[in-house]
Amino acid sequence: MSTTFRGIYPILYAFFGADGRLDEAAMRRQVRCCLAGGAHGLAVLGLATEVNKLSATEKRDVVRWSAEEIAGRVPLAVTVAEATAEDAAQFVLDAQALGATWCILQPPPVRGLPESEYVAWYGLVADLVAKRSEIPLGIQNAAAYIGVGLSPGGVAALAKRHRNVKLIKAEDSAVDVQRLIEATEGRLTVFNGRAGLELPDCLRAGCAGMIPAPECADVQARIYDFMAAGDEMAAEVEYRGIAPMIAFAMQGVAMFLCYGKRMTAWRMGLPEIVERPPALPPTPFGLACARRFADALGRYPGA
Q1: Sheet with 137-141: strands ordered across
Q2: Which of 23, 99, 217, 286 could be disulfide-bonded to 15 (CB atoms 3.0-4.6 Å)?
């Protein structure tokens, strides 16, 4: 693979205080708990971080706080969601200055374009960044969640033309991810998302790791370590224990932002959730389900 990045990279939730602002203490505690739980890296500013609700200053704050807490112990991946190629390239450079190790590009906020135009847009960002930095770049290929995705051929073409495009965050089944890895001939480091669904099979398919939300990333880190050590039976036992919770949370972005964030907060000993609208309101039944899963998992390491 084109990089040495491996393992479980929980992508942080955005926690807000009663005043509606980002809760710095909660964000920093979340980082510390993820590290105590064995995370091999951390990720920020994706869908779980509700990046579309954050100001430019808030986005940079999240990167800075995370990098300060990590203090170089593990890599930090930063998702970049900007409207123009120029702004995206500048955010990559800003994120690197704040402590990012690699960046994940989301597509421009325009739907329905030919695939070639998205490939060209990603390529322009990559070229603009390459003029000033060697930071590795990836793309988030999440058609089901953000409405735009490249075909395996489109991903392969992008990687061939731009040497700094070295990774991809897929949001797909293990079968489709394995097809993507074949199509790109191993030139890209491939992470998958989807809350860690099919984790053992994704690793068997050739994924370097997963980028789930933090609800059970401590367990997922153990699964990755078992798989890396060749103990597939132990990995499968651990996975079967969290699969029902993942199925509950992974039924859409609004669902995991509502219940997944609460499970994470309960496990980490964080304050009750304050939403920044728009947000899915929880139901008593949904909260009972989430509480049952969180209680079964117990307190997060370091909480």
Answers
A1: 7-8, 209-210, 189-192, 165-170, 137-141, 102-105, 76-80, 42-44
A2: 23
Residue 115 phi/psi, 5-degree rounding, is -55, -35
pTM for this prediction: 0.96
Please tell me the distance from the alpha carbon of residue 30 to that of residue 15, in angstroms, as a whole number.
9
CATH label, 7-297, candidates 3.20.20.380, 3.30.1360.180, 3.20.20.70, 3.40.50.1580:
3.20.20.70
Mean pLDDT by 10 residues, the chain (303 residues): 92 96 98 98 96 96 98 98 97 98 95 94 98 97 84 92 96 93 91 96 98 98 98 98 96 95 98 95 98 98 94
User: CB-based contacts of 248: which residues, under 8 Å, 6+ apart?
Assistant: 259, 289, 290, 293
